[in-house]
Amino acid sequence: MEALRLFQIYYSQLNIKIFLVGIEIWNKENKVPISYNSSIALRDFMRWSSTELLPRKHYDYAQLISGVSFSEYSLGETYLAKMCTGDMSGGVVKDTKLGSRKVANYVTHEIGHNLGMPHDDKHSHCPAGQGTCLMSRYSRLWEIPMFSDSSKNHLNRFLTDKNKDISCLLDQPDNWIVSPKSSY
């Protein structure tokens, strides 16, 4: 729950509220094979979540936190700018066992991609210093959890794109486990 509290705080910078509407713990067996290739793990998880999870529980974004170490130094993966698409509105991250803050940073980063924010580049202005914001490509630098001005601009473009259906973000769930107000 500490990780949830943290990414709610991080997203409050963008006036985005995060509600936890469900949690599943797979302690006996995985419901889907978890590949060491993060792209395959994401594809398989999204297939499972759109066919098995979504019919049981309405959600805007599904997140798999796995103990599997993805190859190629990947800590996670999602689809860029696919929030509210159902079968692509989710992500996978590796639980590095480095604590709630790291997991919160990884999840926040992947949700950011799903909300249309690419990695920061050398032209992105980060108030905390170059390369240190949450959408930086290098996770070791996310010591100050902030979004760059570039990330905020990408988010604004995503939210105002007439070709995107973002209606899933405009509703508030009827039932939730943790709401933004109850987590601070």
From TrEMBL:
Pfam families: Reprolysin
GO molecular function, one term: metal ion binding
Peptidase M12B domain ranges (all copies): 1-173
Any single GO BP term: proteolysis
InterPro entries for this protein: MetalloPept_cat_dom_sf, Peptidase_M12B, Reprolysin_adamalysin
Keywords: Disulfide bond, Metal-binding, Zinc
Active site as annotated: 110
Residues annotated to bind Zn(2+): 109, 113, 119
Protein name, entry field: Peptidase M12B domain-containing protein
Source organism: Callorhinchus milii (Ghost shark)
